[in-house]
Amino acid sequence: MTLLAKRPSRLFAFWAVAIFVSFLLHVFIAANVCCPTEPLGVDGINYEKAATQLLTTKNILDPLFLDDKAYWPPLWPLVLTLLYSIFGHDLFVARVFLSLLVTQISIFTFLLAREQFDNKTGVIASLFIAYSPTFFIYATLHNYEVVIADLLIVSLFLVIHSHHLSTARREFGVLLIAGILFGLGILTKAILLAFLPFIVIWELVQKGKTLHQKIARSFVFTLLAFLTVLPWTARNYLVYRELILVNSNGDANFEIGNNLYASGGYWIPPEWEWASFKQSKGNPLTRGLGFIRDNPERFLELAEKKIELFWSAEPVFYFANDVIQFEPLTTWGREWLGPHNGEINEMSIIIFSVGAGISILASMNMIRKRLISYLVILCYSIIHVAIIGEPRFRVPIYPWIAIFQGYAFACFIRLSSSLKDQILPWVENFVMNKSHGEHAY
């Protein structure tokens, strides 16, 4: 805190410039690394097809929008459609938008880290996000990882911030925005529904509110989240005559992660194997639950594998083959990413170093204040144990881990400064005494 006390304006000026430069780098990579006419990745291609179809038909009730029975989550294709309607159908527009979201994630990482730790931790953590190779790459993909990371940290920061507001009116207004943004997060990835009980737990253990107020806050936040999702649920019922809250691929993913041929990751067995267990009675969810019931030991083995995959180092591109992996890149992108893929991968896991784990344990002296961060990391990890474990699935919690890594770095800087203040005078005295002794001799 010494640096901040002496020259806070310089530190924040440096931080603001660094964040702006990172945005420019994101845009540069989007313009020079990726093919301007082709999205990266299988999921990205599907979201692009959905947006293109909606642009053509202009019919949100089209049964084939997002594939049959709303297989894909809707928010990102809807956002793509809106962007293309305003700025023209250009993939670069989407990549610039994702770059802006990464910048916003960096800013809210700073705000959250400052709320839970201090300014120095906030600056370091936000720069981890702003210059993370992972976010540089995901801002060029047509996937929703950056979108969900943004909605998650912004909505939960607003929930935390609303606790400190002086008037009930302002508190309700911020909580209203937080609930709507969290609902949009559910429309981006329905797995966020599993976060709601953890948010309620966090609310109930906070100080400064009566039990009645805590329950009311939890109810308002949850209600607004579901009200945000409700129009899409109604749309699905009108189109398919089935109750599909957000999208329908959750059951399929659950079965992919829990069957006799499962690997723990997003791996679909060969056609004959896939067909053999798909012909079983019941829906995918029922078949997956049946597998867990009949094979508890195998399920535990898969759970361990899913945790390992979820927290493992990820390649910059995770696609199945080299054609999908590098074909959508420009020549410059292929020449640069090919030879340096390993180095970028090593850089991308810096925020998952031992320092983050140590700082998580060391920061538990104020567990109530930082409980939301522990719950986000724990909950997101546990959820994927039940479904599928993939390194890219942890991207939404990168900011939360970056905060703990930033805290570790901030502590190291303070410790280094303290040791310097203690050791340098001792060294100077030692040298002076040695010098005087030699002169006396």
Number of domains: 1
Rg, nearest Å: 25 Å
Report the strand count: 0
Categorize the overall geometry: globular
Beta-strand percent range: under 5%
In a few lines, what is going on in this structure?
The chain is an all-alpha fold.
Describe this structure in words.
With 441 residues, the chain is an all-alpha fold. The protein has one domain (2-435). The protein contains 20 helices and no strands. The longest helix is centred in the last third of the chain and has 43 residues, at 398-440. Mean pLDDT is 79; it is low at 1-7 and 315-334.
Structural descriptors:
globular, 441 residues, 0% strand, mainly alpha, disordered N terminus
Walk me through the topology.
Layout (H helix, E strand, L loop, with lengths): L1 H5 L1 H25 L9 H16 L17 H13 L3 H26 L2 H12 L2 H6 L6 H18 L5 H21 L7 H10 L5 H30 L8 H9 L13 H8 L5 H11 L1 H15 L11 H5 L4 H18 L5 H9 L4 H20 L11 H43 L1
